[in-house]
Amino acid sequence: MSNKSNSNQQETNENSKKNIDELSNDPDFWNIDTDPNEIDASSDELVEIERILAEKKLAQPTPQISEHEIILEAPDEKDILSSLELHRGNQKSEELPDLSDKNVDELLATATAEMKAEQDGTESIKGSRKPKFAPRNAKEPRTPAEKIATVACYLAIVGVFTYLIIYASKQHDFDNTKGYETNTPAKGDYANVEQIETWWSKPDGNNTKFGVVLVPSATITLDSNSKSGVIRSVFYSSEEGLLGKLRAKGDPFTHEFTDGKFIESGTNQVTIYGTDGYEELAHFAFYKSQDEKRWTLEVKEAPSIKTDVNSFKSLANAPIEPIRK
After folding, report:
1. For residues 190 and 229, what is the distance between their CA atoms, to the nearest angstrom?
2. Were 219 and a residue from 90, 110, 137, 197 both cysteine, which residue would form a disulfide, CB within 3.0 to 4.6 Å?
3. Would you list the domain boundaries of the chain?
4. Residues 234, 218: contact at Cβ < 8 Å?
5. Measured distance CA(85)–CA(320) in Å, rounded
C-alpha cells in the first residue's frame, strides 16, 4: 500500500508541475491588464492553483520553539568598560564647540604667525593683538558730572548723619558737666578769689549742731589784686529746699579784708568750719560713693560790712570734696 501511495503522490506532483508550467506559458496568466471581474472564479485553473498553494503551505515544517530560543550571555567587564569609554568620548565631542572653516583658518594663521615670530625674535601677533574687551580692573576716567555727583552724595550722607546727631543730642541731655563744679579763680568788684579748698572734718567750735560728727570745711584764698571789702560764705546741702533752691546748712560766715588781706588772719587766706553736717558716718560713706550730688560753698562779696544781706553779689562757688581731714 505504501508503494502505491508514494507512486500516486509522485504522479500528483508531476501533474502539478506540468500544470504550473502550462499556466506560466499562458500569455494571459502574466497579463496584469486583465480585469479581476472577468476572471472566472469557478474555472479549473484557479481551483488547481489554490490546491497547489495549499499543498506547499502544509508541506513547510513548523519551526520548533527550541530552534529560536534566545541565549543570554553574561556581559564581559571589558565590554562594559569599552562601552563607558565610548559614551564619555561622545559626550566630550558634543561639548566641544563647533569649529567652522573660518575659525580653523584663523587658528592655523595664528599658529603660523607665532612660529615665525619665535624664529625671528619678534613679538607674536597674538600678544600684539588688541583685546576685544577692556579688562575688568581697568578704571575708566570719570567725567566732571560723575565727580560732582559723587561729592554731592558724600555731602548728603554727612549732612544726614550730622542732623541725626544734633537731633538726638537735643532730645537727650548728653551734658556731662556737673552743676556743682567750681568756678575759681573768680574775679569780682572787690575781691578776687584765687582758690577754694574744701573737705570734711570733725566739728570745730561750740556753735556746731548737737549730734553732728562731720562738718564741711573750706579755705578761701584771695589773690594780690583784691581790694578792700567783705565776703560772706554759706554752706549748702545737696537737698532741695523751698522753690527748688538749695537748702542752706549751718550759720553763714562774714569776713572783712583790706588790700587782699583778711583782718581776722592777717593773710590772704581764711578757713571756715560749718556748724551743721552729717550725724552718722554712714551718710558720709554714701556721699563718697556717688558723684551726682555734692554739698557746696557759695562766696558773695560786698563793699562794706554794713551792706544789706540781700545786696551781696555772688562771686565764687565750689563743691565740698568727699575727703576727710
Report:
1. 6
2. 197
3. 2-29+42-55, 146-176, 186-319
4. no
5. 97
For the chain, give me the number of helices (H) and strands (E)? Answer: 7, 9
CA dist., res. 176 & res. 85, Å (int): 81
pTM: 0.47
CB 279 within 8 A of CB 212: yes
What is the rounded radius of gyration, in angstroms, for the C-alpha atoms of the chain?
Answer: 65
Domain spanning 186-319, CATH architecture: Sandwich (2.60)
Q: Which of 316, 321, 318, 296 is nearest to 232 (CA)?
A: 316
pLDDT at 96: 53
Instruction: Give whole-number Cα distances, 228 to 168, 185, 189, 256, 268, in Å.
Output: 49, 18, 10, 8, 12
Q: What is the pLDDT, as a whole number, of residue 79?
A: 75
**b/e for 122-150, b at 16 or more Cβ within 10 A?**
eeeeeeeeeeeeeeeeeeeeeeeeeeeee
Give the sign of the dihedral formed by CA 167, CA 171, CA 176, CA 179.
positive
* Distance (Å) of CA 323 to CA 74, 155, 172, 217, 272: 105, 51, 33, 10, 16
Q: What pLDDT digit, counting tens, does each position of 68-102 carry? A: 555 656 666 777 777 777 777 766 656 555 555 55
Sheet (strand 296-302) strand order:
261-262, 246-258, 229-240, 296-302, 313-319
